[in-house]
């Protein structure tokens, strides 16, 4: 899995993921995000999944770990643009009860609270 970190003009941390999200999500996704958010209060985090082909249980665990980290800091986390297969997985495991999941990046950006 590959992850590109960036910031929008609105101050939202974006994590653009590609490939397969599995055991490596801990090193590729969670650890860098923890480092970037170390001094952030009320972080707004957008995980873009349009190029993710597969998510394993370890990958789901990493997403939930990030959600917990962001919530504990008073922030928001949104997952955007999952492929149909990944979206079906999210529905099957009931992830939408815990994390906001939207179809597009634009829709996600509109949902974030102002900084």
Provide structural commentary.
- The chain is of the alpha/beta class and 115 residues long.
- The chain has one domain (2-111): STAS domain (Transcription Regulator spoIIAA, 2-Layer Sandwich), CATH 3.30.750.24.
- It is built from 4 helices and 5 strands.
- The chain has helices spanning 25-36, 57-72, 84-93, 105-111; strands at 2-7, 13-21, 44-55, 76-80, 100-102.
- Helix 2 (57-72) links the parallel strand 3 and strand 4 (76-80).
- The longest helix is centred in the middle third of the chain and has 16 residues, at 57-72.
- It is globular.
- The relative contact order is 0.19.
Secondary-structure topology with pairs:
Elements: E1 2-7, E2 13-21, H1 25-36, E3 44-55, H2 57-72, E4 76-80, H3 84-93, E5 100-102, H4 105-111
Parallel strand pairs: 2-3, 3-4, 4-5
Antiparallel strand pairs: 1-2
Helix pairs in contact: 1-2
How do you describe this structure in short?
Helix content is 39%, strand content 30%. The protein has 115 residues and is of the alpha/beta class.
Name a few traits of the molecule.
single chain, 115 residues, alpha/beta, Transcription Regulator spoIIAA, 5-stranded mixed beta sheet, globular
Class based on secondary structure composition and strand pairing:
alpha/beta
Helical fraction: 25-40%
| CATH class value | Alpha Beta
Q: What Rg do the Cα atoms give? A: 13 Å
Number of helices, where a helix is a run of at least 4 consecutive DSSP H or I residues: 4
* Major sheet details: 5 strands, mixed
List the helices and strands in order.
EEHEHEHEH
Fill in the CATH topology: Transcription Regulator spoIIAA
* Fraction in beta strands: 25-35%
What is the residue-mean pLDDT, rounded to a whole number?
Answer: 95
Strands, total number? 5
């Amino acid at each position: 899995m590959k992850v590109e970190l960036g910031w929008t003009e609105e101050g939202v941390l974006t994590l653009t993921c590609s490939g397969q999200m599995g055991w490596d999500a801990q090193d590729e996704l969670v650890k860098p995000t923890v480092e970037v958010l170390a001094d952030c209060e009320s972080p707004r985090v957008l995980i873009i999944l349009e190029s993710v082909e597969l998510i394993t249980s370890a990958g789901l665990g990493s997403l939930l770990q990030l959600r917990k980290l962001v919530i504990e800091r008073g922030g928001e986390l949104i997952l955007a643009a999952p492929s149909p297969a990944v979206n079906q997985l999210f529905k099957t495991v009931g992830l939408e009860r815990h994390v906001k999941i939207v179809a597009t990046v634009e829709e996600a950006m509109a949902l974030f609270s102002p900084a």
